[in-house]
Amino acid sequence: MARKQGSHAEITGPRLRQAALRLFARHGFAAVSMRQIAAEVGVQAGALYLYTADKQALLFDLMRDHLEDLLADWSPPDAPAERQLESFVRHHIRYHLDRPDLVFIAYMELRNLDPANFAVIERLRRDYEDQLEAILKRGQAQGVFEVPDTKLATLALIAMLTGVTTWYREGGRLDRAAVEDHYWRMACKAVAAAR
Amino acid sequence: MARKQGSHAEITGPRLRQAALRLFARHGFAAVSMRQIAAEVGVQAGALYLYTADKQALLFDLMRDHLEDLLADWSPPDAPAERQLESFVRHHIRYHLDRPDLVFIAYMELRNLDPANFAVIERLRRDYEDQLEAILKRGQAQGVFEVPDTKLATLALIAMLTGVTTWYREGGRLDRAAVEDHYWRMACKAVAAAR
DNA sequence: GTCTATAATAGGATAGAC
DNA sequence: GTCTATCCTATTATAGAC
Hints:
- With about 200 residues, the first copy, chain A, is an all-alpha fold.
- Chain A has two domains: about 10-50, Arc Repressor Mutant, subunit A; about 60-190, Tetracycline Repressor, domain 2 (Orthogonal Bundle), CATH 1.10.357.
- Chain A is about 70% helix and about 0% strand.
- Chain A has nine helices and no strands.
- In chain A, helix 3 crosses helix 5.
- The longest helix of chain A is centred in the middle third of the chain and has 28 residues, at about 115-140.
- Chain A is elongated and about 65 Å long.
- The N and C termini of chain A lie far apart (about 80 Å).
- Chains A and B meet through helix 7, helix 8 and helix 9 of A and helix 7, helix 8 and helix 9 of B.
């Protein structure tokens, strides 16, 4: 039988990653089959293996690229600790609302990574957390923050901020600027020194 | 061939639920097979269907019972809003640290619920959120809290508190009392009125 | 109440045609 | 570079023996 299409290396690769992203986010890595992904891309299942070593590599590449982007996309401004925190909070919210599917996968599919891949991803996540913890330590040393345990506070703040992805919907009651403002105010108060 | 064991209805049912809980939490609902669960229970796969209608019912029952317990286990004390918030925070942390696997499943496996089951679970989750929001509204009206958007603040606080399950390990650097104290202090400050 | 056996289907991945 | 066809294994769930 004649094949349906010719060669589309440059376009099929990105489309594969996009389809995998969408389907993993909707249904979960384990629940999605290579056949489903292929159908979404518009090719046969066998053809996917021209663009990825296997299903695991598909997941790992999505997560690693996401976290590397997240890290590369922000660095602390040369400013007081409180301004650095504001910058971090606003960037975190913005970045996460822009990429709901990637964020979702990076938090939900850790269990489905091979041990070696898991170690890489955990390292990147730790690097990101360290950026926030450095701000908290600096503010604590300067007396503008009061954070008895900077590691706990870091994880608490990141969990609070990341939670925005579970409820925010475009066109809803609050726009992005308002959401950013509200989270920034709560985060700021949560770590503030008693006055 | 002779069967290995006799009748164990009273014990196999609970063991099935416990095994499913453990495996779903470790590997995810979609990644776990009925054969794996049966092996953990110590029976053959076919025998599981004496205790559950299907795999979906296993997941749904775990989540529903968990959320119903969570709701039944707490009611606001007759006290000022700040004390009610403290009670909620401490109860939430305690309850979640006591049942890490159930909490994990209830947050991670929503995607794997049938639509009808999903609606039931979402209703229960909403009921729980409403309890916290009522406290925030009350404190806001009394002027002890300053929360421009009580719904957003509710979701932000719950996300922050629930995050404890992602890092807390028994026997680690901080004990439960210290963890409770730190989260309570952050939550309290985050919603406090400016003084 | 649990067993073995099996139905019916779907899974990841590969081979070889074109 | 994509196709069809297929290997091999695993899946959920059921049937019928004991």
